[in-house]
Design brief:
Blueprint (H helix, E strand, L loop, with lengths): L4 H20 L8 H18 L3 E7 L5 E4 L2 E3 L1 E7 L7 H15 L3 E8 L2 E6 L4 E6 L5 E8 L2 E2 L2
Antiparallel strand pairs: 1-4, 2-3, 3-9, 4-8, 5-6, 6-7, 7-8
Helix pairs in contact: 2-3
């Protein structure tokens, strides 16, 4: 006996919707601000190391919850360093920082506040925003913040 075509489609759609539901339920949990703040600190520190910055100095140690409203908070972190790659040119140092960040984690460059000496990068999955810049010849600055996230 032949099975009507609509039954085959119905079974296929049922399986598809069931699998889609399973995939949707495995979405990563949103980190707390403290967890994202530690990731931010790690990414900034590793970026400056990979860009071969010397005399690295933490200018914003972070670790403090900054209220955003709705019970959410964000964290910040920033560090500076001096060039050691042989070129004090700010454009080249900014490119060096972008390349270094790319080896640390996947970030997307945004057009927001972009210039030859300053670039913003965002990682939506990790809820992080980092600004890579060279504010003066021979100087590197990497600063970042988390999105507004749950405090606990």
């Amino acid at each position: 006996m032949a099975v009507p075509a609509w039954r085959g489609y119905a079974v296929s759609l049922t399986v598809l919707f069931t699998l889609t539901g399973c995939v949707a339920s495995t979405a990563p949990e949103v980190p707390t601000a403290a967890q994202a703040g530690e990731t931010l600190k790690d990414h900034i520190t590793r970026t400056l190391t990979k860009a071969q910055a010397k005399d690295v100095e933490v200018t914003d140690a972070g670790g403090k919850d900054i209220p955003c409203g709705d019970g959410k908070v964000k964290r910040t972190y920033a560090a500076t360093g001096k060039e050691s790659i042989g070129s004090p040119d700010s454009d080249i140092l900014t490119l060096s920082l972008i390349g270094a960040l790319d080896t640390v984690a996947e970030y997307d460059l945004t057009a927001r506040n972009a210039s030859d000496t300053s670039q913003e990068a965002v990682n939506k999955d990790l809820h992080l925003r980092i600004v890579l810049s060279s504010p003066a010849r021979g100087q590197m600055l990497v600063k970042g913040e988390t999105e507004c996230l749950p405090a606990k």
